[in-house]
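Regression report. Comparing outputs from two consecutive submissions.

Submission 1:
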Amino acid sequence: MVTPVARREAAAHLHQVYGVSQRRACQAIGADRSSVRYRCRRPEDGLLRSRLREIAAVRRRFGYRRLYILLRRDGIMLNHKKLRRIYAEERLQVRRRGGRKRALGSRAPLALPQGPNQRWSMGFLHDQLSDGRRFRILAIVDDFTRECLALVADTSLSGLRVGRELDAIVAEPGKPAVCVSDNGTELTSTAILRWSQESRVEWHTTSRLANRSRMRLSRASTVVCVTSC
């Protein structure tokens, strides 16, 4: 009997079954009377727990830190330590990946864009220089116009850098309604999640980009590179 809950249950059992007083029951199990008499005065968190389960059901790979950002967007203000406790009590911990990958739930197909700036697809292209150093290229494409909006090349492209590049693009043609990307670490980071929440842009993550989107990225980047050369 380590936890106060277990000690309260043991004291109640001795009092009900053997008819001993609460004082003697506490002396027998080595518990303090104040902890046995304690009654929880925490407010009801039914709405918070239900909303947390709803978001976790949609964002299956999000931990409590990312869910904390989404709850604050809905106007639910709470301490991150309290959220972590409720998150653990609801058993919403993200399981480690391993073994054969299986699809979770039903996957809704993406609606086809009917105009510009409705859906942007983005991904990374990889190459290396003549001296062997590798670099990456962030390609952003409008799925309706098939226009390559940006090609950003660098040896390192973090989530913060991607957010800054998106801000630079949004300043001219406007922001999209949906962004589609794969589940790479840069595109699923907290920085990107915060950018999507502040910009009010829905972010759709897939296991990998569709073949059509990959072909558009490669074709657009090739045309732009050839034209610039």
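Submission 2:
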Amino acid sequence: MNERGGVASSGGAQVRVCGCYTTTSCMPAPQHNSRIARFAVFEVDLSAGELRKNGVKLRLQGQPFQVLVLLLERAGDVVTREEMRAALWPSDTFVDFDHSLNTAINKVRETLGDSASSPRFLETLPRRGYRFIAPVQKQPENAGTEALPEMRSSEVATTASPQTRAAPERAVFHPDLDVPIPNRSITRGLFALIQLMYLIFYLVALLRLHAIQAIADSFLSPWAATTLAAAVMVTAGVGIPLRCYLISAVGYDHQRLGEKFRQIFPFLLALDQLWAVAPFLLMEKIGLGAAFAASAALLYLPFSERTLIRMAYIGWHQS
């Protein structure tokens, strides 16, 4: 018998031996191609044991990674706790299984920025098990460009042949918004421009506070005009550091900005709605129609900011 892959005969039956793997059927040698599983902005190298977010490797190893791989391999199906025990903890292993599994699940959720109460990736089914609910795309690592529709355009331009480059790419859709996921540099840049616009609003308002007072005096009582000027001063004073924080956070790509923005959004919404009426102070110069149009646009702007954050920081959105 050839240990490297020959054919031996035993009792009239042929056995093909491929390395250490023996089978009675003439099967080709198994291929050890690395497999890649992709979901949202994450990709999992199932052979290298690596989880990456936007190409950056994340720290997830050991049992938490094995739990994630098991759920990815059966994405959309319920994996019971008993099945996880059988797959990840041998029967002769004495361990607090419930505690170990809960710890592993929590670690996976923490790394993905997921939530048990409003899951986007990992859903808990009480008394049953867990289910991976996000769309998953699986390809061999050495597959061609056509098998990787979510590959970034810069990577396609580098690795694809001229014929492949000419083929249209299929867009990867946001799991919550049902829109193609844009380049993060674009969404972050637009968000930063909005913050810069508000920052300019605040600075100009403070520099022209006397003019605002004069405009308010023209159609409001003295105490109401003073109250309006004070409100402008206070909200601008609060808004300046807030906008500076958001600009710096998105500029440095703070990975928890999505979660932070979700927490401050109610306050930011109230602040932006107050400033949405500012165009009416210029009504005598720009007219009622222009003031109304500008105010309507400003009323929508905070929701636009939230959408941009949700597209740029998918893993940290929690409704």
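Expected: both submissions complete independently.
Actual: both completed, but the second showed a warning that disappeared on reload.
Relevant detail on submission 2: The first helix runs from residue 62 to 73.
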